[in-house]
Design brief:
By secondary structure, the chain is α+β, with helices and mostly antiparallel strands. Helices cover 22% and strands 31% of the residues. It is built from five helices and 14 strands. The strands form three sheets. It has a seven-stranded mixed β-sheet with strand order 2-3-4-9-8-7-6, with helices on both faces. A five-stranded antiparallel β-sheet has the order 13-12-11-10-14, with no helix packed on it. Strands 1-5 form a two-stranded antiparallel ribbon. α2 crosses α4 and α2 packs across α5. The longest helix is centred in the middle third of the chain and has 18 residues. The N and C termini lie far apart (49 Å).
Amino acid sequence: MNTTYTADKPIITWLDEVGSTSTYLAQVLTDNTPSGTVIAARCQNAGRGQRGNTWEAEPGKNLSFSMLIKPNGIPARCQFRISQAVTLAIVSVLRPMLPGSKISIKWPNDIYADNKKICGILIENTLIGAEIAHCIAGIGINVNQAVFLSDAPNPVSIIQLTKQETALEPLLEKLASQILLYLTHDAETLHNQYMNSLWRKNNSRYRDVSTGREFEAEITDIGPMGHMTLTDTNGRQLTYAFKEVAAILPPINND
C-alpha cells in the first residue's frame, strides 16, 4: 500500500516555556493543522517519556519538541513504520555529528551513542477506524547539557561527546526535515535500515520481565506493530511487546 504525507517542510513554533510540547500540540491541533507542524520549547518542565517516565532537560540547553504527522494510508496494524522513520531520521543526523560514537537505535525508539542514551522518543497515535488519523512524535535530544541530575542510568549529550556547543534552532530544522523525508520511504526500506541500526543486535543479554529469567539472544525481527522477536542460544524464538523484556545494560564507563 502506498503512503503519502501532506507536508513538504516543517512549520516550527518555538515556545519559551511549556509543560509538555506533546500535550500542548494535542490541545491546539485542529483538522486543519498541517502535517509537519512542530512545537519546540526552550524550557519543558513536564516532558513525558514511555509509560509515564519523565524526561530531564536543562532549560535552554537541549531540544524538546513534538511533531504532528498525518500519514495517509498506514493501517493501525503497521503503526511501527512511523517509529522506524522517526528514529532513522534522527540517527541520520546524529551520525555525522558524532563520528567517534556508534549511533544506534535501542528498541523500540531510544537513540544511543555507544551504550548511553542521547535521545528519547514517545509516539502517540490517534486512530480513525483501522487507520492512523495522525500521530504526535515527542522527541527529546540531549544537546548542550553537561551535567545530569536525575537518576537516569546512562544519559549522554552531544556536548559531552564533542566538547562543543551546538546551535539548537538549525539542528531542529535539520531533524524535522529529515523526519519528513524518511516518512516518504517505503516499508521494506525502513524495516531493513531499522534492523541494521539496532543497538546490540547480536547476542545481548535480556531479562523476561514476567518471569525474571535472564538469557542471551539476538534480535531476529521487528514486527509491524513493533513486537521484537529474539532467538536465544538454543534456537528458540521469543516474541515480546515493549516492556515485556528488558535489555541488560553493560557496565557504564564514565571516564
